[in-house]
Write a structure and sequence with these properties.
The protein is mainly beta and about 200 residues long. The chain has one domain (about 15-190). It is about 10% helix and about 50% strand. It is built from 2 helices and 13 strands. It has helices spanning about 25, 45-55, and strands at about 10-20, 35-40, 65-70, 75, 80-85, 95-100, 115-120, 125-135, 145, 150-155, 155-165, 170-185, 185-199. The strands form 3 sheets. The protein has a 9-stranded antiparallel β-sheet. A two-stranded antiparallel sheet has the order 4-5. Strand 7 (about 115-120) and strand 8 form a beta hairpin.
Length: about 200
Amino acid sequence: MKFMDNTGIYMEGHVKIKEFLTMEDRELDNPCRILLDKRNSVNPENLSIVIARGLSNQNNGSIYSMAFGTGGATIDNAGNIQYATPNTLGNASLNNQVYFKVVNDNSALTNNNIIIIRHINGVSFSDVEIHCVLGKNEPYGQIATDSTGPTSTSTQFTFNEIGLKSADGLLLTHITFNPILKSSNRIFEVVYTIRCNVN
């Protein structure tokens, strides 16, 4: 008699965005303002591809970058916010990507960005915790826009969608939210957690 192991893999995500006045406050984990604390959506097809690549030690088998966009929400004339549906099917992408940062700490491009694995012995899940820091004056050269289009170079950066990507551009997760404004004198840390549960 043959026995089949029907193991299931369940993945869920959560995003927290913290605002700090100084890098020292961040490094010391001083009190900060929480700008977003929300669950996110995952792309099951693309995640399955990256997991298979990682298990077989092939290229592009890991999280590589965090992408930021401006197509996650729109505001109508009455001030109502309409959220875009997260893109989690097939060959998906952000609705309007405007910036990205490398978060894979095997790359020389990370600069304060790290990925941490958290696991407790005896449980069937592990957390992948991605930390991405937007420093003061970052992103550089952000273009301010209004209803007529680009207007000037700005010291502010507004975004309302975030996604994690593999090095070859597969969108693994996507979240949309109220527009968040980052001024040039503030530091943001995005803590993006993916829980991998096998049971």
